[in-house]
Design a protein that fits this description.
With 400 residues, the protein is of the alpha/beta class. 41% of the residues lie in helices and 16% in strands. Strands 3-2-1-4-7 form a 5-stranded mixed sheet, with helices on both faces. A 5-stranded parallel sheet has the order 9-8-10-14-15.
Amino acid sequence: MGTLIEQIRQLEGYENFLKLPTFKDVQIATRYTPLVYIVATPAGGLALIVRSLEEKPEKPVARVWLPELTDAALKEQLAHYLNVYSNRKKDQQAWKDALENIAHWLWQTVMERLLLKLAGDTQVTLILVGRLGLLPLHAAWTEVNNTPTGKRYALDCLTISYTPNARSLISARNIANRVLPDTILAIQEPKPQPETVEPLLYSKYEVQQVVSHFSANKRRILEKPEETTSQTVLSTILSKNDTVLHFSCHGVANLNKPLESGLIMANNEHLTVKDFLELRLNGVRLATLSACETGMPGMDLPDEVVNLPAGLLQAGVAGVVASLWSVSDMSTALLMTKFYQEVITLWQQQGTQASIAPALQKAQCWLRDATKEELAQWVKELPMLKKFGYFQMANFVRKT
């Protein structure tokens, strides 16, 4: 891993890739949200909450001890979860149970104590050290009696986003402040795919719904085989300078060689982390990776993760939406549809420099809590539904 990082640093513009930021960098980043560094050690875990000097001039850094977050405990939890996850096609319920268990463990071990210290905050950015980057701390939960699910999740308490380091956050916010998200490039289920890959039945609906938020002359969809090879997609991204990128496709995580993790294009070609790290983008406001495992880093990690979101941030993207595990085609289409509704509304109300995190949080909570009847009615009212003949989607939602 160290050799790979050094190779990346040899590239022009990447000299500081994954180098430790200075406290000045950290302070600049805290202008946007408090930063929380979380690390596991052999003796227990530690969270450092860093606020701006303007907010806390006398004590900008607060520490939260996490005694149960030891290296050994984290390794044990991850080993079990990843083992079950690797066999999820044979036993979906075992994987779902393992995900529930590790998310509950994250509440008891990390988030319960951390949220007490963050009382009063509405938004926070987490910087997870090492293997913690494999885990969804926003999905940590505890039991309650007054919610539809019987649980309270960390994302119910405040808006949570992630960044590899303070420098990445500063760069992302600078891009967000200058880039207008008015054009979109969408990649729709590249074909042909291997027989082992399940077709994405709702990819066309998802993409059409997403691009409908943009003017007809400012949206582009790549779907033909010759358009969706990895090289053609990269060339289009570089030449067209679209400010929103949406990938509706399959993804794959390589835990042992994270630079080879990527998105599956036509002919089973992979658009990898390495490919994105070699890009020089003029500025992209949002990249949505509507595919499974696109946020999962490798197992042999340095202090900071190397994954698709980190690669895109380094390439010049202000905000990335990605998944840490395999996701359902239909539920992903529903989530993406709601997310774009929320993010467009957010940008209209607060300006396009506003963080995308609250929009994603709203969409996630809405989809989690909506009843079957509410979902079916909402789907029926979507403008693209009738045009593309997806009324069976509403009926399927009602029955599931």
